[in-house]
UniProtKB/TrEMBL annotation:
Top-level taxon in the UniProt lineage: Bacteria
Cleaved signal peptide residues: 1-24
One Pfam family linked to the record: Beta_helix
Comp. bias regions, Low complexity: 45-58
Family matches, as SMART domains: PbH1 (SM00710)
Keywords: Lipoprotein, Signal
Domain Right handed beta helix: 142-295
Protein name as annotated: Putative lipoprotein
Stretches the record annotates as Disordered: 27-67
Family matches, as InterPro entries: Beta_helix (IPR039448), PbH1 (IPR006626), Pectin_lyas_fold (IPR012334), Pectin_lyase_fold/virulence (IPR011050)
Length: 493
C-alpha cells in the first residue's frame, strides 16, 4: 500500500463509509473482488474446446455443436454473440465455461442476454460479462433460472436489467456483481421458487444504475440483490456496498435465510430489507454508513417513518414454516454510523387479499387465499393466518454505535423502532384501529436484550407518534433491552 493510499484509509476510519472511496476500506473481513480476480485458466485443460475471440457468434456455435458436459476455454480477448438482440449462448446440461485471463463476453449494448435456457449444472469461471441490454426484471447470466449453476471468480458488470438470475441450488462464489442497471442478482424462479441458494465471498456494488424506484415509483424492483420466494439461502462473507437502493432485499415469502459475516457499507437505502418473509438468522455482520441517502430524503420531506439499516416489514419467525430456525435471530452484529439501527414494522392494512398487499396474488404460507376474505377472515384460524407477522424477533448481543456529527444529521436519525400503523382499510378488515400496533409492541414476542449502545439513541415504539429515550424504552410498558449497556460498555446484568 502506497503512502497516499494508507493515509486515505486512515482518514476513512474517522469518517462514515459513504464519504470514502469504495475501495478504501478501514476494516478486515469481506473485501474487494472486483478487479482482484485470480489469474486462472491460462491454458486450456485437457479435452476443453478452445474458443477464439473476435468471431461473432463463435461461442454460441461451439456450444450448439458439442454434447452436454463439454468444457469450453475462452481465449483472451473480446467474445461477441451476434449482431441482433437475440444473440446468446444456450448451454447444455453440465457445460463448463472457463475464461483465460482477459477473456470478455461483451453484449455491446445489442444482445439482451449472454447465457440462457434451462440447462442444469452449468459452470462459469473466470469470465468478464458486460454490456448486455436485458429487459426489466430479466437477467444476463442464467436468464431462464436454470438449476444448479455455479458462478465463480466471474465479473458481471455494466449491464441493463439484472446481471445474474438464479435457480435452485445455485452457487455464486468470489464473483463481482457491479454497476448493473437494475439488480446485481435477481433470485426469482417461476413455480415453487428457488431452494438452496448460496452467495459466498462476492462483491455486490453500484447496482441499480437505472434508478428504478424513481423510474417506476413503488415497483420494489431494485437493489444489489433481490430475492423472491427463496426457501433456504446462505449469504456469507460478501461485501455489499454502494448500491443505489437496498443492499439485499428479500421480498415475499422467502424463508430460512442465514446472513452471516458480511460487510454492508454505504448502501443508499436499507442494507438488509426483509419483507413479508420468514425465519432469518442475521449474525456476525458489520453495517456501516447505510441508509444515509434514504434517511436524508425522508427527513427533508418531513417523513418521520424510521428508515433503518435493517428493516423487517411483516416478517418474523414462524414454526409452521420449516427452516433451520423458527425465529428471526439478530445477534453479534456491529452497527456503526448508519442513519439508524433496526426497524420492526407491520402494516396493519397489508395481508392476504388486501388491496394494500403490493405482492399481488400472493398469500401467506399459513393460509388458503380463499379464507382471507370478508365473512371468513375475521374467524379463526384465518384471523391469525392471513397476516404476515413481525413476530418472534430476538435482537441481542449486538453493538450499536452512532455519532450524529459523523453521519451529518440533526433529526429523525439514530433511532430503533418497533411499530405499526393504525388500521384503516378495506371496510371488511378485522385489523382496524390499534389492533396491530398493540400486537407487534406487546403480543408477538419481539425482544431486544443484552446489546451495547454508544451515542444518542432514541426509540420509536407502538406508532410513529411515540418516541422515547433509553429509560422509557426499558421501563414499563415496553420493558425492552434488559441487560443492555447504553454508555458504550459491555452488555450484561
Amino acid at each position: 500500500m502506497g503512502r497516499s493510499r494508507a493515509v486515505l484509509v486512515a482518514a476513512c476510519s474517522l469518517l462514515i463509509a459513504v464519504a470514502c472511496p469504495a475501495t478504501a476500506r478501514a476494516t478486515d473481513g469481506p473485501g474487494p473482488v472486483c478487479d482482484h480476480q485470480p489469474a486462472e485458466h491460462e491454458e486450456a485443460p485437457p479435452g476443453a474446446v478452445p474458443v477464439d475471440p473476435g468471431v461473432d457468434g463463435d461461442l454460441s456455435a461451439e456450444t450448439a455443436a458439442n454434447p452436454p458436459g463439454t468444457t469450453f476455454w475462452l481465449r483472451p480477448g473480446t467474445h461477441t454473440l451476434g449482431t441482433d438482440r437475440f444473440g446468446q449462448v444456450a448451454p447444455k446440461d453440465g457445460d463448463v465455461y472457463l475464461g483465460a485471463p482477459g477473456a470478455v463476453v461483451d453484449g455491446r449494448g445489442v444482445n439482451q442476454a449472454a447465457f440462457t435456457q434451462r440447462a442444469r449444472d452449468v459452470e462459469i469461471h473466470g469470465l468478464k460479462i458486460r454490456g448486455f441490454a436485458a429487459l426489466q426484471d430479466q437477467g444476463v447470466v442464467n436468464h431462464d433460472s436454470g438449476d444448479g449453476w455455479l458462478i465463480e471468480n466471474t465479473t458481471i458488470e455494466d449491464n441493463a436489467g439484472a446481471g445474474l438470475m438464479a435457480g435452485a441450488r445455485q452457487v455464486v462464489r468470489h464473483s463481482c456483481l457491479r454497476n448493473n442497471g437494475q439488480y446485481g442478482l435477481n433470485a426469482y424462479q417461476a413455480g415453487d421458487g428457488i431452494t438452496g441458494l448460496v452467495l459466498e465471498g462476492n462483491e455486490i456494488t453500484g447496482n441499480n444504475t437505472g434508478d428504478w424506484e424513481t423510474k417506476v415509483p413503488g415497483c420494489g424492483c431494485s437493489g444489489g440483490a433481490k430475492f423472491w420466494a427463496v426457501n433456504g439461502a446462505d449469504i456469507s462473507g460478501n461485501w455489499v456496498h454502494g448500491n443505489h437502493g437496498a443492499g439485499l432485499w428479500a421480498d415475499t415469502n422467502n424463508n430460512d435465510f442465514l446472513v452471516e459475516g458480511n460487510l454492508f457499507e454505504a448502501n443508499d437505502a436499507e442494507a438488509l430489507f426483509y419483507e413479508i418473509s420468514y425465519n432469518l438468522v442475521l449474525r456476525g455482520n458489520t453495517f456501516r454508513g447505510n441508509t444515509l441517502v434514504q434517511g436524508r430524503a425522508f427527513a427533508a420531506r418531513g417523513d418521520n417513518f424510521p428508515a433503518a439499516a435493517v428493516y423487517l416489514s411483516e416478517s418474523g419467525g414462524e414454526p409452521r414454516v420449516p427452516g433451520r430456525t423458527a425465529s428471526v435471530d439478530i445477534s453479534g452484529n456491529t452497527f456503526e454510523d448508519n442513519w439508524a439501527g433496526i426497524t420492526l414494522w407491520e402494516n396493519a392494512d397489508r395481508y392476504c387479499n388486501s388491496p394494500a398487499n403490493t405482492s399481488t396474488g400472493y398469500c401467506t404460507k399459513a393460509a388458503a387465499k380463499s379464507s382471507c376474505a370478508a365473512g371468513t377472515i375475521e374467524k379463526a384460524p384465518a384471523y391469525d393466518d392471513c397476516r404476515w407477522k413481525t413476530q418472534r424477533v430476538e435482537i441481542h448481543g449486538n453493538t450499536f454505535r452512532f455519532d450524529a456529527g459523523r453521519v451529518g444529521c440533526t433529526s429523525l436519525c439514530g433511532r430503533m423502532a418497533l411499530l405499526a400503523n393504525f388500521g384503516t382499510f378495506p371496510d371488511w378488515s378485522p385489523y382496524k384501529g390499534t389492533v396491530i400496533e398493540e400486537a407487534i409492541t406487546f403480543g408477538q414476542a419481539n425482544r431486544w436484550h443484552d446489546n451495547s449502545y454508544a451515542g444518542p439513541w432514541t426509540f420509536v415504539v407502538h406508532d410513529t407518534s411515540r418516541t422515547v429515550d433509553a429509560a422509557g424504552w426499558r421501563a414499563e410498558p415496553y420493558s425492552q433491552d434488559e441487560c443492555s449497556s447504553f454508555d458504550g460498555g459491555t452488555a450484561g446484568c
